[in-house]
Amino acid sequence: MSTCVKCPATQWPNSNRDDCIDKEIIYLSYEDPLGTSLALISVLFFLLTTLVMGIFIKYQSTPIVKANNRDLSYILLLSLKMCFLCNLIFIGHPLQVTCILRQTVFGVTFSISVSSILAKTVTVIIAFNVTRPGSKLRSWMGSIVSNSIVLFCSLTQVLICAVWLGSSPPFPYYNMEDEIGKILLTCNEGSLIGFYCVLGYMGFLAFISFIVAFLARNLPDSFNEAKFITFSMLVFCSVWISFIPAYMSSKGRYIIAVEIFAILASSAGLLGCIFIPKCYIILLRPEMNTRAYLTQKK
Fold first, then answer.
1. Residue 219 half-sphere exposure, CB side, CA atoms within 13 Å?
2. What integer best gives the mean pLDDT of the chain?
3. I want to staple 27 with a disulfide (CB 3.0 to 4.6 A). Which of 9, 157, 185, 267 is the partner?
4. Lowest mean pLDDT: which of 32-46, 154-168, 185-199, 281-295?
5. Would you put residue 24 in left (φ > 0), alpha (ψ -120 to 50) or beta?
6. Distance (Å, rounded) from C-alpha 146 to C-alpha 284?
């Protein structure tokens, strides 16, 4: 008892209680099978999105690509590629810069994706109503309105992130309480209010996009994109609603794994529901990719 020495916070006693040894530092690394799997899936989805974008560029003059706003489709595909790549920032040794980039890059890229979907839905509604006699929406046609929606919604998220980083930014955190003999190296979100504001704003955009697309789903057309947008936003919202309890109940590296899985699932849902049906028509059903077919009424 007279020579008893307490080990530092980063160490703990060995089995004989006569020496202090370093605690094991745990984080989601690329050497970890879980980290390797998530990184590989992210890269594969990035390549798939690149392939889809290549198809759209090659067939950009076809009616189905032109009818669904090519510019917004390219913006959405680029943002989805960034969403898949941003998962790689979540894997590896947490640093000050990566902790800051994780949530901000994720929040901004997802806001661009969801605002692009909202702009596509608004464009669909305007396009169907502009043909009515005496319609006042004719002046709203064109890329100015859709680009303004994407720019405004994205800049709002950038402003939220800037306020968050300016007040209390994320930082690397050594968690020594959750597991005995181990140090969980994670990113502390700093201001939880800022973090939840980023997620809340993204959820707000997704909810508005879902409601607008749902209301426009029955517009008469042989290829009404609002139907696919409705289903994609339903998948998107379902994933992130499920993410909240899973995130709150997870610990250590599994918190990061849950968030990466949510990003992958929601991004893949947007890619699959919106673009895969179009690629199917472009590549396998070219007879449906004609102006006469797209303009026929049900």
1. 25
2. 84
3. 185
4. 281-295
5. beta
6. 30
Q: Which domains does the chain have, with CATH numbers?
A: 26-295 (1.20.1070.10)
Give tens-digit pLDDT for 77-99: 999 999 999 999 999 888 999 99
pLDDT score, position 195: 87
Among residues 246, 269, 272, the alpha carbon closest in space to that of 259 is found at 246
What's the angle, vertex CA 57, arms to CA 39 and CA 222, rounded to 5? Answer: 100
pLDDT, one tens digit per residue, over 117-168 is: 888 888 777 766 655 555 555 555 556 778 888 999 999 999 999 999 998 9
Long-range contacts of 223-230 (CB under 8 A, 24+ apart): 223/64, 223/67, 223/281, 223/288, 223/294, 224/124, 225/68, 225/120, 225/121, 225/124, 225/274, 226/121, 226/124, 226/125, 228/273, 228/274, 228/277, 229/117, 229/120, 229/121, 229/273, 229/274
Neighbour-count burial of 167, counting CB atoms closer than 10 A to its CB (0-12 exposed, 13-18 middle, 19+ buried): exposed
